[in-house]
Amino acid sequence: MKYKNEIKKAFEVSIPVMMGYGVLGFAFGLLLVSFEYSWYLAPLMSLFIYAGALQFVAINFFNAKAGFVDIAIATWFINIRQSFYGLSLLKRFKKTGKLKPYLIFGLTDETYALLTTIKDDEQLKKRWYYFFLTAFNQSYWFIGSTLGAIVGSNIKFDTAGLEFSLTALFVVLCIEQYKNLQNIVPFIIGAVASLIALFTVPSDKMLIVSILLALLLMFTFRKRVENE
């Protein structure tokens, strides 16, 4: 097989995401059909939208019959964080050629966490390793959400609390990032920024405000962060 090593490494690295996305995707599929939507919307959304948290939020958009402008604005606020951390991957993706559009489309929080936490193997063809890692992660979400929707269409479940599974995965990834960095300062800054945003702005603007505030604090305490 031409890219055997890249596929093998990408699969090994993606196993933690498989565990999380399988469950999360399944939860999304269950939640979607619990609102009386057709099961096939789950695989279609996971294939063409593939935006984890936004897909959960999209269910509420549909249910509330939100307009396109409202959806566009909310989507921008929810996913703008990826614009910030995506900038740090411009150098890595520079030589990915025709694969770059998909790598940009498939960049999720979890894929970013893997790309920045695990060191690259110099013997691998990096652009194909990045591609297979991204594709594996999307396939886990796609399969999980499709199975969840199909099962949920035939068996009734109590879906209360399922949305918390996404938060749980973020917590695990945060812990992994700390283990890799061994630097508590960025995490304290993130926590402080989130608390300030939580108590000072409306909930629908908390995410963007906390991100901007965290960036401001990171620049302010840049020397402290680097020294740690």
TrEMBL record:
It holds the Pfam family AzlC. Keywords: Cell membrane, Membrane, Transmembrane, Transmembrane helix, Transport. It comes from the Bacteria. InterPro entries: Brnchd-chn_aa_trnsp_permease. GO terms for biological process: L-valine transmembrane transport. The chain crosses the membrane at residues 13-33, 40-62, 128-151, 157-175, 184-201, 207-225. The keyword Ribonucleoprotein does not apply. It is a multi-pass membrane protein. This is Branched-chain amino acid ABC transporter permease.
